[in-house]
Amino acid sequence: xxxxxxxxxxxxxxxNKIAAKKLQSNSIxxxxxxxxxxxxxxAQQLSNSIIHATEIDADAAKQASENFAASPWHGQLHAVNxxxxxxxxxxxxxxxxxxxxxxxxxxxxxxxxxxxALHSHQLGFEELLAAIQMHLSVTGHFAVLLPYHxxxxxxxxxxxxGFYLHQKTWVQQTPAHALFRSxxxxxxxxxxxxxxxxxxxxxxxxxxxxxxxxxxxxxLYL
Length: 222
Hints:
The chain has seven helices and eight strands; from the N terminus they run H-E-H-E-H-E-E-H-H-E-H-E-E-E-H.
């Protein structure tokens, strides 16, 4: 799977929220890590964090291991080729991050690996929340990237599990486009959630100031 802009934005947004809100992050779990993008972005900003990255696809997990080994943060990063449903750890994680497979009733492709990466039959929202419930510390937080149209369903399921929305950021491609992603931060403490919107590109096709502010430490040409 290619690295996509919304995943990069989500990684930068998550690292920013952890730092800005001074959230505990000594131990982080990345569920459905792919080739390790989110884990690498978090490690770049959170030098004291131990990050475990689970990935069901063997090829992707192997690539994540190679990417981790080649990075300056190789001592922090550990890839595990396993579905989160069978993952076992002695840690209760301070923070969990996930860019889960989120297409439910959309058309599948002829590529089996792509279907596992994008379609939720391998990891439904209920299973994801059950895994978070199992692995998240009592005072921990988690963040997810979702399509706009599935946000309300996930929020309801999360609240049923005792998780409360703390931050919601809608994502638009341009001012002319409809909302297409949501970046959500949850915790176990009930509070009034903050809501913001970020637009990736302006009318002229240039990255917006808000996007540049988040991604400048990651995109070499910004």
